[in-house]
């Protein structure tokens, strides 16, 4: 099978880590029967400054018509509004209907309480439909935002969470040392207060997970505020967490803090038959150009993309090579307390692969 992969480095250290993602895919053993073709694509703030579009139409068209998946680095978003600019990854999620944001959070096995969970965030609606307005009243301005929750989106996000739980069950049964829990899906919401919107999310997710094919999957619920508390007190208690957009965004950044560095945490934006792997970190202007960025979040994102393109065996090889580097703990980048350069971390992981 030949997979055609779009490469979108974006800005800052995206340009340092995406080439590493390409190299690890190219280094996969031939025995897997996988070949790759790569297409270099533009997006980001630099692209915006050069062309007036942060996400050129050509990039979207090539991804849609020619690619099986993509790797996206990071973009530098200006902190004050710039006319005409909006985040390309947010636009891509909409244009390609990448409805799930999947974020595995995993600590090194030598940690006292190994963490190995996946946060599955709904990616298309909730407060992020960005339907906001501001109006004047005699007492001053009032601003409002729409929180939209649909049965369709809630059902498909819960379904993919259930599928991920089943896949992890298989990995656990095959002897994974870190997945010691599950299959379990924890539905996160605030339906005690938002009985209609979060209420619909909750009941629809329950219904989707009641499907007989999820018979072996335990389902529990957690109100989002106590979820944050428990996530920090007892992170090892979770397997798969599913949440509406906003809560999922916050929970997944919070969970990333549990494992030491943003440089380790991958994500995938997943739609029907398409996936974009994307490290969770930004463009890190403070370290760019020094050759010290941690490539692991991107390498894991490449593996995660492969998982959702049904190439689980190839993904497992990459995960194992990365884990072996971390477990040995000798060649670590500065964000993990080491002194190793990006290139040498990549070399070590390629050698293990
Ligand atoms: P950041 O994630 O770029 O950096 C936060 C801190 O983590 C920095 O100290 C950085 O050096 C470090 N770090 C991040 N990735 C690392 C890696 N792979 N290896 C070693 N250290 C790493 O977040 P920040 O500084 O808040 O944002 C910088 C820019 O990135 C902004 O323009 C922001 O808008 C953008 N950004 C883009 C995202 C995306 O494209 N999805 C996500 C987050 C931020
Ligand atoms: Mg975020």
Automatic annotation (TrEMBL):
GO terms for biological process, alphabetical: isocitrate metabolic process; lysine biosynthetic process; tricarboxylic acid cycle
Keyword Phosphoprotein recorded: yes
Spans traversing the lipid bilayer: none
Catalytic activity, as annotated: (2R,3S)-homoisocitrate + NAD(+) = 2-oxoadipate + CO2 + NADH
GO cellular component: mitochondrion
Residue ranges of domain Isopropylmalate dehydrogenase-like in the record: 4-349
Pathway stated in the Swiss-Prot or TrEMBL entry: Amino-acid biosynthesis; L-lysine biosynthesis via AAA pathway; L-alpha-aminoadipate from 2-oxoglutarate: step 4/5
Matching Gene3D superfamilies: Isopropylmalate Dehydrogenase (3.40.718.10)
Keyword annotations from UniProtKB, A to Z: Amino-acid biosynthesis, Lysine biosynthesis, Magnesium, Metal-binding, NAD, Oxidoreductase, Phosphoprotein
EC number: 1.1.1.87
MF annotations from Gene Ontology: homoisocitrate dehydrogenase activity; isocitrate dehydrogenase (NAD+) activity; magnesium ion binding; NAD binding
Co-factor requirement: Mg(2+)
Xref: Pfam families: Iso_dh
Primary enzyme class: oxidoreductase
Family membership noted in the UniProt record: Belongs to the isocitrate and isopropylmalate dehydrogenases family.
Name of the featured protein: homoisocitrate dehydrogenase
Annotated organism of origin: Cercophora newfieldiana
């Amino acid at each position: 099978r030949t997979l055609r992969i779009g490469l979108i480095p974006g800005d800052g250290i995206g340009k340092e880590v995406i080439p590493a993602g390409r190299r690890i895919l190219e280094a996969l053993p031939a025995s897997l029967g996988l070949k790759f073709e790569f297409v270099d694509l533009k997006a980001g703030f630099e692209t915006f400054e050069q062309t007036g579009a942060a996400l050129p139409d050509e990039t979207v068209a090539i991804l849609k018509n020619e690619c099986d998946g993509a790797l996206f680095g990071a973009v530098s978003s200006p902190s004050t509004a710039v006319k005409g600019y909006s985040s390309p990854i947010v636009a891509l999620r909409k244009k390609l209907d990448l409805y799930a944001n999947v974020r595995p959070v995993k600590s090194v096995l030598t940690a006292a309480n190994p963490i190995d969970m996946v946060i599955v965030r709904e990616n298309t609606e909730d407060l992020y439909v960005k339907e906001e307005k501001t109006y004047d009243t005699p007492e001053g301005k009032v601003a409002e935002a729409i929180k939209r929750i649909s049965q369709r989106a809630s059902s498909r996000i819960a379904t993919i969470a259930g599928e991920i739980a089943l896949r992890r069950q298989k990995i656990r049964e095959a002897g994974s040392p870190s997945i010691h829990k599950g299959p379990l899906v924890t539905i996160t919401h605030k339906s005690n207060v938002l009985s209609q919107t979060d209420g619909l999310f909750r009941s629809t997710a329950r219904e989707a997970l009641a499907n007989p094919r999820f018979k072996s999957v335990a389902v529990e619920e957690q109100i989002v505020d106590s979820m944050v508390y428990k996530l920090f007190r007892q992170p090892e208690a979770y397997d798969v967490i599913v949440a509406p957009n906003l809560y999922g965004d916050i929970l997944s950044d919070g969970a990333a803090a549990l494992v030491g560095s943003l440089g380790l945490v991958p994500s995938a934006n997943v739609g029907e038959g398409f996936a974009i792997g994307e490290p969770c970190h930004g463009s890190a202007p403070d370290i760019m150009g020094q050759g010290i960025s941690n490539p692991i979040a991107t390498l894991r994102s490449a593996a995660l993309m492969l998982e959702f393109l049904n190439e689980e065996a190839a993904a497992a090889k990459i995960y194992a090579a990365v884990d072996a580097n971390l477990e040995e703990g000798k060649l670590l980048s500065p964000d993990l307390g080491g002194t190793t350069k990006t290139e040498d971390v990549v070399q070590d992981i390629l050698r293990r692969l």
